[in-house]
Structures are given as structure tokens and as C-alpha cells.
Amino acid sequence: MTSPWPRDVTDVVAVRRDLHAHPELGFTEIRTAARVDTALRDLGWSVRSGREVFDAAGLPGLPEVAVLEHAADRAAAEGVPEDLVTRFSGGRTAVVATLRGDRPGPTVALRFDMDALPITETADDAHPPLRRGFASRHPGVMHACGHDGHVAIGLALAAALSTRDFPGTVRLLFQPAEEGVRGAQPLVAAGVCADVDVLLAIHLGFGLPSGRLAPAATELIATSKHLARFTGREAHAAKAPEQGRNALLAAATATLNLHALPRFAGATTRINVGRLQGGVAANVIAGEAELAYETRADTAGVADELARRAEVVVRAAAAMHEVGVELTRTGHATAATTDPAVAAALTSAAEGLAEVRATHPLGASDDASLLMRAVQEAGGVAGYAVVGSDGPGPPHSPGFDVDEEVLPVAVAWLERAVRGGQW
Q1: pLDDT at 1 over 60
Q2: Average predicted confidence (pLDDT) for the chain
Q3: Which of 114, 116, 305, 300 shows the shortest CA–CA distance to 220?
Q4: Distance, CA of 201 to CA of 173 (rounded, Å)
Q5: Element (H, E) at 275
Q6: β-strand 103-113 against 167-175: which pairing, if any?
Q7: End-to-end CA separation in angstroms for the chain
Q8: Is residue 34 within 8 Å of residue 74, measured between CB atoms?
Q9: From CA 166, how far away is CA 174, in angstroms rounded?
Q10: What are 236's strand-pairing partners?
């Protein structure tokens, strides 16, 4: 590879900065996956990646072909070898690495998400990545949720464990497309959790200050993401409006009525329409429109019912305006709870590293919950932990950044937990 890359993955800050400068959206993480794949093989891990993990063809939420091709061209231009560009093209960006320890013990899987967000990073001179020279080089894309830090933590952990002096087996899951909750389900379907005894995911920040570690996140809520495509009939807006069937008006009706859905007593719910677009000109009845929305709830049952009601609203809006509608669920996650055994092991491993807060409310969704549920339903245990990280902006904002001083702490925390083997 001709582009600069920190060869020493134990330099967790340098790796994070390189990843921050080269953010990639879900299912286009070609450069990131190539770097991860190469580093893990160099460390002696057994690696499966690309199509060896899953073939992304036909996956809901997969970017359009032009987007995937642009990502491949960009990765090649940034020095990724042709064979790795081919391996990770077409949305096949997952990397799974396994290493056996020197004595019997459980199989422990740790999830690290890799994707960035379609957000333009702030140009404020005070923004640390800009001031220090590692702001996003990809226009309109940035790491605004800390996944660059997660990948760096995962690679540093891989280096620490490469000595094999730990019990059991460790599996590292470098997951694409957490944003939009699209990447975990194909991993589950590929069987990466089939023999796992312990599944652990971590996240930086989310309101937990630096110097704190939370072994168990609460309020990890279920969500469902949907894309509705309305198809009507174009017509002249003045000469023949009665001959048209207004797809954009149907989508707008659905938007208002989605936000008018009643909430549930005893449950926390959310609904959001994040994108509405359609039509071609002011004097043309819109023949096509597209609506992207999400539902969330803190229990799986309420989440399912809310999603059902939202679908009724969308289809009713289409029927009201006599247009067609195609509904696709592009991603989903479930509610999740950390098992006490995992929380206890992480609490013990945190001793002397930082202040421990038993729980911390996430108040968001993560499709690591699907990996957690798969392990728990098979008789294993799972957890979701939070590493405190101060930052100048909230998650999913142009001014977001992580506190790099917490990255080595996170590595040490996970290393201690794995070596302890007390799950």
C-alpha cells in the first residue's frame, strides 16, 4: 500500500487519526477493511473477510451500484492493492478474525463497527482533527460517532492478545454499516455467533465523561428503518391536474401522519422522517417520491407494533392519493440488556483503570443487539459497555470528536477482561 498507514497498530491514537482522515460509509469501508485485514494477518490471526464472511448482493440498505463503484475507485486511488479492492467491493466489507489462547476457556467475540456518517466535518479552526491535520479528506463524510476509535481499539487489542496468553478463543468482528443498523444481521445469518459463549460490544462517549467506564449500557432500544417509494402519474399541474396522481403529496401526507401516531403508555418510543424527496418541477405533478423513516421503542414488542402501525399509515397515504408504494425495511435492531456475568467481569477488569459507573443510559440503537440476542438465545451471555469520552460536539454532529486519551484505557480494559476469562 502506497498511502501512509501506521504500521504499529499498538499506536492506537495514530491508527484512529488515519481512519478519521479516511472515513467510509456503510458497506463501502474498503480501505478500512483492507487495513484491518492486513494488520490482523500480520499479527498471526486467522482471518475471514469479504465474500468469505457474507455476500452482500441483495442486502436491504445496500448502497446503489454507482456509490459502491465510486468507493472502490477511491480506495484504489488511496493505495489499496487491487486484490483487496476486489475482495471488499460490492458491500462485502466485513472482517472476522479468530485466535486460540494457550489454555481452555470460552469463545469470546468482540464487535467493532467501522462505518462513518454522511456528515460534513466542521471547518472551525478550533476543531481538534482540523487543527491537528487529520480531518476528513472525503467531502460530505466523517467519523461523527467514534467508530474510528472503535476500530483502532480493536486492532490494538488484537496486537495485545497476539501472544496467545489468554484462556479460550477470541473472535474479533469488524462490522460494516452499523449506521442504519444494516451490518449485523448478515453477520448473524453467516453464523459468526454460532459457537460464541460471550459477545461484547463497546461504544465511546454517549454522554459518559472521560475517566469513567460503564460495564452495562441501559436504554439500548429497538429500531426499524424503512424506505417507502411512491409511484404516481405525472401531468401538467395547470392544464391537467386531475389526470395526475401526486406521489409527493402522498409522501407528505405519510410524513405528517407518521409523526401524529400515538405513543405508548409505559414505553419510550420515537418516530422520525429523515428524508423526503420527489418530483421534478413546480409545474409537474410529481410522479415519484421517496420517504425514509424510522421507528424506535425500548421493548421489542412495542417496536414491532409501532412499525406495523407506521406501515399502515404509509400504505393508507398511498391509497388516499391513488398511487403505488413499495416499502423496504433497510435495517433493524432489537432492544438488549447486558447479562450480569458480563457486567461483573468488566467491573473487575476496570479496577484501577478508571471510575466505574455500573450502568449508563445509551438512549439510542445499535445492531450489535442482534449479535447479543443471537448469543443469548443460544445459551451464552452478552454485554454492551460504554467507555467515557469527552468531546466538543454530540454524536452525529459536524463538530464531534473523541478524547484520544481514553483509547489506551479501553484497550487495557478489554484485554484484562479477556485474559481474566471470568464470564
Answers
A1: no
A2: 96
A3: 300
A4: 10
A5: strand 269-278
A6: parallel
A7: 40
A8: no
A9: 21
A10: 284
The model's pTM is 0.95
**Widest distance between CA atoms in the chain:** 80
- Counting residues of the chain whose pLDDT is more than 70, the rounded percentage is 99
- Nearest residue to 40 via CA among 87, 85, 92, 95: 95
Per-residue confidence at 5, pLDDT binned at 50, 70, 90?
A: confident
Dig out the grid coordinates for 268 from the structure.
419510550
Q: How far is CA 357 from CA 55, 57, 218, 369, 423, in A?
A: 40, 42, 12, 21, 19
DSSP string, 187-255: HHHTTTTTT-SEEEEEEE-TTPPTTEEESEEEEE-EEEEEEEEEE-B--BTTT-GGG-B-HHHHHHHHH
φ and ψ at residue 44, rounded to 5 degrees = 90, 10
Cell of 66: 454507482
Neighbour order of strands in the sheet with 46-49: 46-49, 95-100, 167-175, 103-113, 198-204, 381-387, 212-214, 355-356
Q: In whole angstroms, what is the distance from residue 318 CA to residue 376 CA?
A: 40
- Which residue in this structure is represented by grid cell 415519484? 288
Res. 2: pLDDT tops 60: no
Question: What value, to the nearest 5°, has the Cα angle with vertex 159 and ends 164 and 200?
Answer: 80
Residue pointed to by grid coordinates 462513518? 116
User: pLDDT per residue over 159-191, tens digit each?
Assistant: 999 999 999 999 999 999 999 999 999 999 999
Q: Are strands 269-278 and 288-297 parallel, antiparallel or unpaired?
A: antiparallel
Predicted local confidence at residue 3, as pLDDT: 54
How many residues does this entry show for the chain? 423
The C-alpha cell at 385 is 459497555
The values of phi and psi at residue 314, to 5°, are: -65, -45
Q: What's the pLDDT band for 4 if we cut at 50, 70, 90?
A: low
296: closest CA among 361, 221, 228, 369? Answer: 221
Beta bridge partners of 200: 110, 383
Answer whether residue 397 shows pLDDT above 60: yes
